[in-house]
Amino acid sequence: MKFTINRNSFIRSFNDVSRAIPAKTTIPILTGIKLDLTNDGLLLTGSNSDISIETFMPVSDEELNLQIESVGSVVLTARFFGEVVKRLPEDEFTLEVRDNYQTRLTSGKSEFTVVGIDANDFPRLPEVEDQSELKIGADILRDLINQTVLAVSDQETRPILTGVNFTIDGNGLLAVATDSHRLSQRRLDLPDITSTYRMVIPGKSLQELSRMLADQSGDIALRISENQVLFSFGATKFYSRLLEGNYPDTARLIPTEHNVQLQLNASTFLAAIERAALLSHASRANVVRLVLTPADNSAILSGTSPDVGNVEEALTITALTGDELDISFNPDYMKDALRAFGPAEISLNFTTNLRPFTLVPTADGEHFVQLITPVRTFN
């Protein structure tokens, strides 16, 4: 196996595939990246227990300047191999696999020899047999992930809650995540859906996918099998395992009525929460307090730490209706929720100071809702 390739182009593809490679694993070969060279081009593959990523670098791509002398395959330790390639002196480098998978890298006057592994020992990628395919805009999918994955649980005591629950049917796509203290739900209208799919994708997989989609445009193709989902975009394929088990029924958790409604700008509210959190983070309880007085059109946010001091701020609001309310909540949950809305105008809908409350954009409350459970305090 021997080829020469443009170094910067190779590094871009290598970095994408490296997202799937674990720093530590009980399966040593998974710390490596697999290189498959055919007459058509170079295929890079990385994998761990949750995700697998492969990207193809075709010989027809002039930017790659891929020159193939002999085909073959090898697995190289990703961390060391990547550091070597990034530090090679010239714009191009040559990789040659010799006896016993000893791999020589040359660029200019530099030469490295890296110990390789037989590619036949690398686990096979999962097969996604379902031929039906959905297409979603890359920017839409990225926003959906970022708006929901914030609410997944980081506790393995309930593994099903560490993922985002996707339901795809005639009503479109519904994505829901909850850690039992907060919830985020996003709905997309998708035309011509004739089948029904239900799957729970690990939050960590979705976070890596979102990062890869940052520079993508156009549509992402999505295919689903019994225990795997495949996202295809450009020359890259992103596989993720699905979580096993039944996701809880979250529809009943979202209140359909409210007694108090506060409307304000999400960005302005976020800045105020960040100021109040400076004090709440110094306190063991880590809560902020919101006092609403509709008769005075007043919304007062405060944070207190017995050891540091307190802060109190009158919020700039658009509207306030309903009953008086004194409620406390975790500021970190609120910050995550507000960041997902960006600069939009939002409505906070409350029932009582002990029941979960919702946040929705005033322009489109049907498609995006977040829910936060308040904190009981004893004054």
Quick tags:
379 residues, alpha+beta, DNA Polymerase III, Chain A, domain 2, Proliferating Cell Nuclear Antigen, 3 domains, 13-stranded antiparallel sheet, elongated
What's a concise summary of this model?
This protein is α+β, with helices and mostly antiparallel strands.
Number of domains: 3
CATH third-tier fold name of the largest domain: DNA Polymerase III, Chain A, domain 2
Q: Tell me the CATH architecture of the largest domain.
A: Roll
Relative helix content: 10-25%
Stretches where pLDDT is under 50 for at least 5 consecutive residues are none
Strand order of the largest sheet: 5-1-7-8-9-6-2-3-4-17-16-15-10
The CATH C-level name of the largest domain is: Alpha Beta
Structural class: alpha+beta
Describe the sheet with the most strands.
Answer: 13 strands, antiparallel
Walk me through this protein's architecture.
The strands form three sheets. Strands 5-1-7-8-9-6-2-3-4-17-16-15-10 form a 13-stranded antiparallel sheet. The chain has helices at residues 7-18, 78-87, 138-148, 203-212, 266-280, 331-341, and strands at 2-6, 32-38, 41-47, 51-58, 67-70, 72-77, 92-97, 102-107, 110-117, 134-137, 163-169, 172-178, 182-188, 197-202, 219-224, 228-233, 236-241, 260-265, 288-293, 298-305, 309-314, 319-322, 325-329, 345-350, 357-361, 368-372. The chain has 379 residues and is of the alpha+beta class. A hairpin with a 4-residue loop joins β7 (92-97) and β8 (102-107). The protein folds into three domains: 2-121, DNA Polymerase III, Chain A, domain 2 (Roll); 134-251, DNA Polymerase III, Chain A, domain 2; 255-372, Proliferating Cell Nuclear Antigen (Box). α3 (138-148) runs antiparallel to α4. The mean pLDDT is 93. The protein is elongated and about 80 Å long. It has six helices and 26 strands.
